[in-house]
Structure prediction request, 157 residues.
Amino acid sequence: MTTMTALSLQQQQLLAQAQISRALEDVARLDTQRAMLAAIAAGVRQQTLADTLGVSQGAVSQRLKVARDAAPVPEGFVGASPREIAQRYAVRMIDRPTMLQQLADWPYPPRDHSRANEEWNYVADAHPWDDVTDARRRGWITDEDYDAILDRRGYSR
Prediction:
């Protein structure tokens, strides 16, 4: 895999643009799914929804099946996961104070390291905090943002 340091400035900028576009695509897909579910729950027929979106009724049906499996957005949050919150910040849908507060307030469960101590080849399950470290790695949040989130959670560096 090519590292960002081996790339020209122009290449780095183009990759960053592609990455932000991908985050916007992900957020738009989630918003569309949630809007479709809300429309159906409000009594809109699938065919009416299909006509509005310019897709077939079968496509609406398939998208609704996927949407029903999506995690709901917890009350008081703008995303269903820390990843989604970071993506919304990266595409300028929320401001920095909102992002920091939401990622700091997210209900991260404690990590279970008990099996890691017993099994040398144990690979831990994904944890919501992994979304935050991934957002930092992807450049959706900065090192300063990451440190501010840790500070708000009461962890010293």
User: Anything to note?
Assistant: The chain has two domains: 9-70, 76-109+126-157. DSSP finds eight helices and no strands in the chain.
